[in-house]
UniProtKB/TrEMBL annotation, chain A:
<dbReference type="InterPro" id="IPR007419">
    <property type="entry name" value="BFD-like_2Fe2S-bd_dom"/>
</dbReference>
<feature type="domain" description="BFD-like [2Fe-2S]-binding">
    <location>
        <begin position="11"/>
        <end position="57"/>
    </location>
</feature>
<protein>
    <submittedName>
        <fullName>BFD-like [2Fe-2S] binding domain-containing protein</fullName>
    </submittedName>
</protein>
<dbReference type="Pfam" id="PF04324">
    <property type="entry name" value="Fer2_BFD"/>
</dbReference>
<dbReference type="InterPro" id="IPR041854">
    <property type="entry name" value="BFD-like_2Fe2S-bd_dom_sf"/>
</dbReference>
Length: 95, 385
């Protein structure tokens, strides 16, 4: 297996089990923003909310578009910042 | 790589949500060349990608029943047609009535639906509990169900249209906002955008929550407004706790479980204020969590991972406007879906493309012109959350 093939098999998003190869393929098709990749591959939508994969994907977009990482939109962050149980949220109302 | 800018086109579509992508794909399929789609963000970044994913034929007007059923039929074969999985799940919609008057209306809707070939039916509480094994609705007075309703992935469905349209030569310009419509002597001439102008004899307003603003650029007054609806999603849990879409008009909720296991739940804002912001509130999180835990008590320990909001583009009778403007020739509208744009997209895009290419549509939609509002010929839809 070549280095390139090995890299393609690396799981980048562990929540949704998305590989580097899938991410590179979709960027190559023109879906080259974090939010577009999120919409198609669900990266950043799992329990970790992109804490594991976001930086890696932003670096990959930058590399493939040949721009600095600082110019790549990090995509949307959504609340809550940490998963919260429904029963805890529901109880809060009764206090 | 900077993409080539086209100064002219046969059709310019404004908005790459489900409407714009479906219209563009269907135009290309009918042989229309030189179609350009403008999107101020990225495809499906607006209302489509924010919606609750529901698809249904359980409606209260003949028009919506026809559109709903025709759309289901397209969605059932869309993976094959577009060559991409769209995350279709037909677990049915279970409508829950808490008031006698509401149940009477649901029963009337079922009679209408049945007369149009939709096999919805009234179900008992025992049957409702079989359809949704974790449901607790002792205070409900009645239920209706249609097994072909369900949900599809709004992102994947729209991207599937987007990709298929691109492969058929449609040009999509993302991060390109429409800032003006060129009209001369009652005819549309093209668009002005943040990246330049495009001359075109046909312009389609598929701008979702901003459709009335786009129409105003052509001098057309659409009596629409947009309102913010909030929604949340949980971590995935074992599939089967809520295999159907649970929906109630008086209960003001819709709750479903995606095949991946996450529960999605949303409701309408109190008082339905006009609101173009896309913020999130703590109030919604508390309210929705309480509704979910009451209806599906086993879910108490499940965690909310994300909340967001999106806009409904409301029309006076909660039915869309689909067709050509009578004031500005060549200016077409597909908007005002009042929260149901995603589920109608497959059929509305097809019908509008037919209208543009052939001048007629396979389902007559003349009544969906916006002059109905001025004439007072509203077709009020009762089955809306």
């Amino acid at each position: 297996m070549t280095e390139e093939e090995k890299e393609r098999n690396v799981i980048v998003c562990r929540c949704e089990e998305i590989t580097m190869g899938e991410i590179r393929d979709w960027i190559a098709r023109g879906y080259d923003t974090f939010d577009e990749l999120k919409h198609i591959l669900r990266v950043g939508m799992g329990p970790c909310q992109g804490r594991g994969c976001r930086e890696i994907i932003l670096r990959e977009i930058a590399k493939m578009k040949n721009v600095p990482v600082s110019q790549v939109d990090p995509g949307t962050f959504r609340p809550p910042s940490k998963p919260v149980k429904l029963e805890l949220l529901a109880e809060e109302v009764d206090k | 790589m900077p993409e080539e800018w086209k100064n002219t086109a046969n059709v310019v579509v404004i908005g790459a949500g489900i409407q714009g992508c479906s219209i563009a794909y269907n135009l290309a399929k009918l042989g229309m060349k030189d179609v350009v789609v403008l999107e101020k963000d990225t495809p499906t970044a607006g209302s489509t990608g924010r919606c609750a994913a529901g698809i249904r034929a359980q409606w209260g007007t003949k028009m919506n029943c026809q559109l709903g059923l025709a759309s289901l039929e397209i969605l059932e074969n869309l993976h094959e047609e577009l060559g991409m999985d769209i995350g279709l799940h037909q677990g049915g919609y279970l409508m829950v009535a808490y008031k006698e008057s509401e149940f009477e209306q649901l029963k009337k809707n079922v009679a209408l639906q049945n007369s149009l070939g939709i096999t919805s039916r009234v179900v008992s509480k025992e049957e409702a509990y079989e359809i949704c094994p974790t449901l607790s609705a002792e205070d409900a007075v009645g239920f209706t169900y249609h097994h072909r309703d369900g949900h599809a992935d709004p992102f994947l469905t729209t991207i599937a249209y987007h990709k298929a349209a691109s492969e058929r030569g449609v040009r999509f310009y993302k991060f390109t906002e429409c800032t003006g419509i060129k009209v001369k002597d009652g005819e549309v001439k093209g668009v002005v955008t943040t990246r330049g102008e495009i001359d075109a004899p046909v312009v389609v307003d598929a701008a979702g929550p901003y459709s009335q603003h786009i129409a105003a650029m052509a001098g057309i007054k659409l009596p629409f407004y947009s309102e913010r609806h909030e929604i949340l999603v949980t971590e995935p849990v074992e599939f089967g706790v809520c295999p159907c879409m649970l929906m109630s008009f008086s209960g003001n909720y819709y709750i479903q479980q995606r095949p991946i296991g996450s529960i999605i739940a949303g409701c309408s804002p109190e008082g339905h204020p006009e609101d173009y912001s896309l913020g999130n509130t703590w109030n919604f999180l508390e309210h929705m969590s309480r509704v979910i835990v009451k209806l599906l008590p086993k879910l108490g320990g499940v965690r909310v991972v994300r909340q967001w909001s999106g806009m409904y583009n409301m029309s006076p009778d909660k039915q869309p406007v689909i067709g050509e403007s009578k004031e500005v020739k060549g200016f077409y509208i597909s908007a005002g879906f009042s929260g149901h744009g995603f589920m109608f997209g497959p059929i509305s895009g097809k019908l509008l493309a037919e209208l543009i290419v052939t001048g007629t549509s396979s389902i007559p939609i003349d009544v969906l012109n916006y002059d109905r509002f001025e004439k007072g010929e509203l077709i009020e839809e009762p089955a809306v959350v």
